[in-house]
């Protein structure tokens, strides 16, 4: 299965609660933190919900 690296690049302060929970579900807590996930429809959907707060790249 393909992997994707997700990096938080913007703060979750003053964001709606659902976006904060999505970042937490992805495993992101701090700016600059990088996590690696399998490329599944669930993960891609979460990334698209917070695409303005994260950056992605193929792993």
How would you describe this structure to a colleague?
This protein is of the alpha+beta class and about 60 residues long. The protein has one domain (about 5-59): Ribosomal protein L30/L7 (Ribosomal Protein L30, Chain: A, 2-Layer Sandwich), CATH 3.30.1390. It contains two helices and three strands, in the order E-H-E-H-E. It has helices at about 15-25, 40-50; strands at about 5-10, 35-40, 55-59. The chain has a three-stranded antiparallel β-sheet, with no helix packed on it. It is globular, with a radius of gyration of 11 Å. The N and C termini lie close together (about 10 Å). The relative contact order is 0.38.
Short description:
By secondary structure, the protein is α+β, with helices and mostly antiparallel strands. Helix 1 crosses helix 2 (41-49).
From the N-terminal CA to the C-terminal CA, the straight-line distance is: 11 Å
Strand tally = 3
Q: Give the overall silhouette.
A: globular
**Uncertain parts:** none
Beta-strand residue fraction: 25-35%
Given helix and strand content, the structural type is: alpha+beta
